[in-house]
Task: structure prediction
Amino acid sequence: MPSEFELISRFFSRPTRQAVLGPGDDCALLAPSAGMHLVITTDMLVEGTHFLPGTDPWQLGWKVLAVSLSDLAAMGAEPRWALLAASLPEACEAWLAPFAEGLFSCAGRYGVDLVGGDTTRGPLNLSLTALGEVPAGTALRRDRALPGDDLWVSGQPGLAALGLAQLQGRTKLPAALAERCLAALQQPLPRVELGRLLRGLASAAIDVSDGLLADLGHILERSAVAAEVFVAQLPALPAGVDPVLARQCQLAGGDDYELLFSACPETRNEVVELGKQLDLPLWRCGRLTASDSHRLALLDANGRELTINRKGFDHFG
Ligand code: ADP
Ligand code: MG
Result:
């Protein structure tokens, strides 16, 4: 069995391109760029809580980085560095090799250097710290949304939650849809390019990790506004799946890693153009209103209000 140090050097020490000093010393050395703010986030993935036992190691490696890059994207940041703290039940090379491949694939795709971490024995638990940079004063925050702003969401929220329902045997999706949903769940694509281009355009942003309505709630609270969400302007529900489940997943499922953002109506065309440029659908799905009640109203195509439960709602209009 490889020692801790062999394991680190074999699987987690790859040449860095943007660190003064990467893995191997007591600390990494990084040179932040002039005029930039550092943007830092940590996320922990615990087996049994955040992913099912037996999850494919390549996809887990991808996802452990991707979820943190999604947080950076939601701030409009450029991803640059990452640190991985891993608690592993055993030094199983057949697991570690694909896990590292998935991690470094995601790192390569988004231009991130793994500059350090910690490796210890214990229950499978992966904690990743991602660092990015944003020009000082331009970070997208949750607390800058204004009454009158449009509300937008990227991509197709709900697919990942449908993928989880499929894995747990709660639904039986048609094959092609199942494949899309499982990809959304297991290999999410953080919206880094979108976040970067939303700097100076969006008034507030958040990534959808806990469900669209729940995450919208954070913007409302932090910005002291209320919202109307137009269900009919969200992406059409996928065919071949129970519409009640699909709607619940869309509004309250987790693990989407899409961006939910607000922007003033004068910039509508710019946002539409951005979606075209990125080949990423952007849905104008609501608007913010002046009220510090943080109230969230869900409206059907006729403007009738739908009832929302804490994690979903029970009437589809
Ligand atoms: P120390 O005991 O001084 O904290 P460690 O023995 O934990 O150092 O780690 C040795 C080096 O390997 C450090 O540079 C650390 O950042 C790096 N490292 C440890 N685990 C990982 C990992 N999972 N991924 C990347 N680098 C790692
Ligand atoms: Mg250590």
